[in-house]
Amino acid sequence: MKIAVFGAGYVGLVTGTCLAELGNEVVIVDVNQERINQLNRGIVPIYEPGLDELIIRNSKEKRLIFTLDGIKAIKNSEIIFIAVGTPPNEDGSTNLTFVLQVAKEIGKNMNSYKLIVNKSTVPVGTADKVKKTISELTDVEFDIVSNPEFLKEGSAVQDFMVPDRIVVGIESEKAEEIMADLYSSIARTHKPLVFTDIKSSELIKYASNAMLACRISFMNQLAPLCEKIGADIKEVAKGIGLDDRIGPRFLQAGVGYGGSCFPKDVQSLSATLKEYRLENDLIESIEKVNSRQKDSIIKRLKMLIGEDLKDKTFAIWGLSFKPKTDDMREAPSLVLIKQLLYEGAKVRAFDPEAMENTKQYFPDIYYSEDLYDSVKGADCIVLLTEWDEFRNPSWDKIKESLSSLHIFDGRNIYSSKKMIENEFKYLGVGKK
Ligand SMILES: NC(=O)c1ccc[n+]([C@@H]2O[C@H](COP(=O)([O-])OP(=O)(O)OC[C@H]3O[C@@H](n4cnc5c(N)ncnc54)[C@H](O)[C@@H]3O)[C@@H](O)[C@H]2O)c1
User: Fold this and answer.
1) Nearest-angstrom CA–CA distance, 19 and 160
2) What is the pTM of this model?
């Protein structure tokens, strides 16, 4: 099939590349000239495991092209994916400017039937807006599909190729047939292809993210209670997660969720409820608990090493909002580093992939060569992102370099017993 994908970000790049890998002819369009130039030189602008090889192979075999020329891409394709950003407005509602810009471009350049597939995360009713925008500009036949993306940064290629499910909101048989055909090889992995109406499909994406975020905030709300009463949040998570009705995932207390999706999608769902004059108190609380959790890291550090942080040095382990990505959007590290600098503390940061991106926010902190360099002269280690390489470092080597042996384990990856045996003053989240 001939496919155009608008947006060469995390979602557009992964979607377009994986569809090329499945044998389709794909052209990925972006308005960011530097990004397209990089991609045409074989440089992949984001870190996503496995993506580089697929991009290089499919570009070489001419199934994958990167371009700024949206008009040609529209005219030459029968399926057009919209995978552009949908950032939040000031009030938490979703800014649809980029989506509607693409819709206009499609409307102006339609030359034959097109199936327009919305992959961006958009509030209920957006498909209608896209349809109206296009219809006002053309008489050529087209269909709209809602096909929300559930990939997780860090395992996005695997998530696309072997998803838990593919949700497709349709309103015509023709659209259903084309989408079933497009995803036939993925459906062969016995993963359900769920066809539904467009509005349900649009809402499924927000409901999924809000539910996952809610589980995290639920545990984060219980963490201080565990600390007060001498319980352990990890034990609580294990105990409730063994219940089949609950399950074990997304029950980790920590420093709060970040990323480009949970914070904005929870706020957008809350704004949608408000727009329809419905109660949004539960959804609003999810985000409230989360911001409080990010803000509480500094209080925990003060509990650990004392109120005065001036001239104290912190080795920050992990900057990205989660492991295996270089994405810094809404990362808890951004909140903490800002607060530490405000308090007059010094920061020695280390992250395996996200240091370049962090420099845009904090150009003047010290970026370390590796985790051993980060601890030189530091008063406290602060583990914020659970990259695998932080799990089993040489504590003897680390102890030689630290000024004093304090560690805040923001993801509860270390055993408190082991850390205390190692002579550290240790603080986790939701532990005694
Ligand atoms: N990142 C994720 O993990 C993830 C997962 C699921 C869904 N989503 C959703 O997918 C959408 C895209 O997210 P992302 O993380 O890929 O965003 P991103 O910011 O990484 O990329 C968006 C890209 O769209 C480009 N763009 C903007 N206007 C354009 C236009 N008119 N024509 C062509 N390109 C244009 C931008 O230049 C940018 O490169 C969002 O709605 C997001 O909520 C993201």
Assistant:
1) 9
2) 0.94
